[in-house]
Amino acid sequence: MRRTVVTALAGLGSVLLSVGFATPVSAAEATCSDRPESDAVALELIGYGSTKPFGFRSDPDITVVVEAHPDTDPANVAAISEAIEVWNAVLQDCLGGAVTITEVDSGPGVVSRADVVLRYTPHWSGVNYSGLATCQPQRCTVWIGGEPPLGHGGGSASALDIYNLTLHEIGHVLGLLHATNLLESTDLMGYAWPSIGGSTEIPISDCDVDALAYVWSWAMEGTEPVPPAAPTYDCSRS
User: Fold this and answer.
1) Which of 5, 161, 205, 231 has a beta carbon 3.0–4.6 Å from 20's, enabling a disulfide?
2) Which H or E run contains 145?
3) Which residues constitute the domain of residue 128?
4) Which first-to-last residue range defines the signal peptide (predicted)?
C-alpha cells in the first residue's frame, strides 16, 4: 500500500511524493568511498511510483539559474553558487560524471530554458531561515530566504547558513526527499542539522551519494531513464 504525504518544516523544504515500504536490492554504486557516515536510517526518494522520471530528471545534465533580490548580501549569493559547485564536484567524483548540476548566467531566454530556477529573496517566507523546492513536470523552482521580514527583530542567516540550506534544497532537486528519522538526523537531508549551529559546514554523506547512485543508476549505466523502483534507500547499505 502507498500513501501520499507532504513533509514540511519552516527553515527547510517541502516536497510531495508517494511513500511505500521497500528497499532497492541492486543498483549502480557510487565511485567514491570517503564521504562522511550518515546517521539517517534511510532516505526517501522522489519519483517512486511515477510512470516516468520528473521532467528534467530524464536529462542528467541539470542547469540552474540563480535570481537574487538586489538588496541581498553578495556573500550569501556567493554561498549559493558555492553550494551548487560543491554538489557538482561530488557528483563528478561519486557518480563518475554521469550527472551534472551547473549554474548558468541568466539572460534573454536562459531562465525559461533552465532546469532549475533558484530565487534568493531574503524576506520571502516571513522567517529568517527558510527554503522550499517544488518540482513541476518541466522544471524545479527553489526559494531561499535568509533574513527576517522588515520591521521584525532577529538576526540574519550567515553565508554558511545559506550554503547549508542550498545544499539541502539541491538534494531535493537531485531526487532525495528526507531522512526517515527526519527530526533526529543530522544528515544533510534531515531536519536536525540546523541545531548544530551556524559555524558548521554540513557535509554530503555516504548515504546521500549512494542513494543518488541508485536514483541515477540508469544514467551511470547508459540506459533509458527510469524512476526509482523503491521508495527509500536503506543507509545501512552505505
Assistant:
1) 231
2) strand 140-145
3) 3-237
4) 1-27
Beta-sheet pairing, 42-45 with 232-234:
antiparallel
Which CATH number covers residue 102?
A: 3.40.390.10
- Alpha-carbon radius of gyration of the chain: 17
Dihedral angle of Cα 115, 120, 123, 127, to the nearest 10 degrees: 80
- pTM value is 0.83
Distance of CA 14 to the CA centre of its chain: 11
Q: Cα separations (Å) of 54 from 10, 105, 134?
A: 25, 24, 11
Q: Which whole-number Å values give the CA distances from 143 to 82, 94, 120, 121, in the listed order?
A: 16, 27, 6, 7
What pLDDT, in 10s, does the model give residues 164-196? 999 999 999 999 999 999 999 999 999 988 777
What DSSP assignment string belongs to 161-216? HHHHHHHHHHHHHHTEEEESSTTT--STTSSSGGGG-TT-PPPPPHHHHHHHHHHT
Report residue 36 as a C-alpha cell. 562522511
- 119 in helix, strand or coil? strand
Q: How many domains does the chain have?
A: 1
